[in-house]
Amino acid sequence: VKHSLQVFPPFLFISTRLILAALTLMIIQRMLKKPILPKPSEWKPLMILSLLICLGFYATQTFAMQFVASGLSAVLVFTMPIFIGVLAHYFLNERLNSQKGLGLVLGTLGLIAILWPQLQHIHMNTSLLGQILLIGSGFFWALSTVFIKKNF
After folding, report:
1. CA-to-CA distance for 147 and 1, rounded, in angstroms?
2. pLDDT band at 7 (very low <50, low <70, confident <90, very high)
3. Is there a contact between 49 and 148 (Cβ–Cβ < 8 Å)?
4. How far apart are CA 21 and CA 5, in angstroms?
5. Which residues are listed as membrane-spanning (predicted)?
6. Residues 75, 114 contacting (CB under 8 angstroms)
7. Phi and psi of 9, rounded to 5°?
8. Which of 51, 68, 82, 113 is the most buried (most CB within 10 A)?
9. Rounded to two decimals, what is the model's pTM?
10. Distances (CA, A) of 106 to 11, 51, 100, 112, 121
11. What's the pLDDT at 112?
């Protein structure tokens, strides 16, 4: 993604990527003789999921990667398990036991340790903005994962 952003603007890159994926899936569905369009009852949850993944996850991740190194980007996006632990507790009624709670605390402390140097310089620079967007991307990834489990 980082290399592609040197050639393409973020949203053109995302659009191209998603259009190619959709066309590929349509071809596969056609070859398997399965319907291409979803059932009418599936449209609403699929539209919500599309917004969560395409705008929430892909758009924030791709836009933010202009400002943050690839390695740090991967770490920040993979805050997703921290968010899933909390969201699953509230939206899927999954118990947040002591092991999960400890995992959430350790994950959060690890995130703070990684971000601490930037947090000491409170002024809003583009790197910090990119990092915040990447954490947001991880949140949207988690939210879409919980949404899938709840609705499909």
Report:
1. 26
2. confident
3. yes
4. 18
5. 6-28, 48-68, 74-92, 104-122, 128-148
6. yes
7. -65, 155
8. 68
9. 0.84
10. 34, 30, 10, 10, 24
11. 85
